Amino acid sequence: MKNLISVVGPTGIGKTRLAIDLANHFKTEIISCDSRQFFKEMKIGTASPSEEELAEAPHHFIGNLSVKDYYSIGQYEEDALKKLHELFEKYDTVILVGGSMMYEKAVLEGLNDLPEANEENQRKLQEMMDSEGIEKLQEILRELDPEYYSVVDFHNHRRLLRAIDVIWQTQKKYSELIAVSQDSRDFNVIRIGIEAPREELYDRINRRVDIMVEKGLLEEAKELEPFKHLTALNTVGYAELFKYFDGIWDLDFAISEIKKNSRRYAKRQLTWYRKADDIHYLQLGYSQHDFDHLIEWISGEFQSKL
């Protein structure tokens, strides 16, 4: 039986480093399930692994697309499983890493056969949004499905439209529909998380935004401004800077909003992961001793699943 180790946790907690350490230990490769790191033009704002990090272990699904490409979670599921199948020909263990909760879920469990978009519902919702703002959609979803509302990126109107449309069509909560596991996967899964006190995590996120700005986030966002209408760019770190370029916000405020929205996203990720009872946690700033201990634990898990 093959093994997939999935490294999870909120944004900015250090998943990349742990994934590389694990890949080096097991002499294997890494599959990313960070949906924002797929886009090659968004390296700085998505904290994609550096050239040095990419050289330490082979990575897949990093910078493999352009923001102009349409790419769905369903396509990712198919591509990731195909890549996993190839890698399992060579290795007994492969590493999956990323904080995009639904993308990890797609690999581990599969997506569900949800209904196609209903044009009438979409039109009605679009009209509501045009007249009453995205807040109206947020309010509807919060009432219909508080569980999904607590983890969805509620600034992404497409996600809201999709969820409400599916709920209206099926008369079931979206969170329940996506929780039903599809076909079982023919590999073992071990999920490893990194945790830290919330203040420490928020400090790291704030610092990381400052580093992104130093590395040239403004220049990167400026080059992407012509594509700001695309879904890929409706992302923390870019959406705020587009408002600065449009003269709506000043720079200091835009950067403080990036920090605030990054912390909010981390909070949603923490809510999602807290519901799982199968994540084995390592503390932020783990020592070599902690890492060795983790490897021992993983080996024990592998043995028990034989």
UniProtKB/TrEMBL annotation:
<dbReference type="InterPro" id="IPR027417">
    <property type="entry name" value="P-loop_NTPase"/>
</dbReference>
<protein>
    <recommendedName>
        <fullName>tRNA dimethylallyltransferase</fullName>
        <ecNumber>2.5.1.75</ecNumber>
    </recommendedName>
</protein>
<comment type="subunit">
    <text>Monomer.</text>
</comment>
<feature type="binding site">
    <location>
        <begin position="11"/>
        <end position="16"/>
    </location>
    <ligand>
        <name>substrate</name>
    </ligand>
</feature>
<comment type="similarity">
    <text>Belongs to the IPP transferase family.</text>
</comment>
<comment type="function">
    <text>Catalyzes the transfer of a dimethylallyl group onto the adenine at position 37 in tRNAs that read codons beginning with uridine, leading to the formation of N6-(dimethylallyl)adenosine (i(6)A).</text>
</comment>
<dbReference type="GO" id="GO:0006400">
    <property type="term" value="P:tRNA modification"/>
</dbReference>
<keyword id="KW-0460">Magnesium</keyword>
<feature type="site" description="Interaction with substrate tRNA">
    <location>
        <position position="123"/>
    </location>
</feature>
<keyword id="KW-0547">Nucleotide-binding</keyword>
<dbReference type="GO" id="GO:0005524">
    <property type="term" value="F:ATP binding"/>
</dbReference>
<dbReference type="Pfam" id="PF01715">
    <property type="entry name" value="IPPT"/>
</dbReference>
<keyword id="KW-0819">tRNA processing</keyword>
<feature type="region of interest" description="Interaction with substrate tRNA">
    <location>
        <begin position="34"/>
        <end position="37"/>
    </location>
</feature>
<feature type="site" description="Interaction with substrate tRNA">
    <location>
        <position position="100"/>
    </location>
</feature>
<feature type="binding site">
    <location>
        <begin position="9"/>
        <end position="16"/>
    </location>
    <ligand>
        <name>ATP</name>
    </ligand>
</feature>
<keyword id="KW-0808">Transferase</keyword>
<keyword id="KW-0067">ATP-binding</keyword>
<dbReference type="GO" id="GO:0052381">
    <property type="term" value="F:tRNA dimethylallyltransferase activity"/>
</dbReference>
<dbReference type="InterPro" id="IPR039657">
    <property type="entry name" value="Dimethylallyltransferase"/>
</dbReference>
<dbReference type="InterPro" id="IPR018022">
    <property type="entry name" value="IPT"/>
</dbReference>
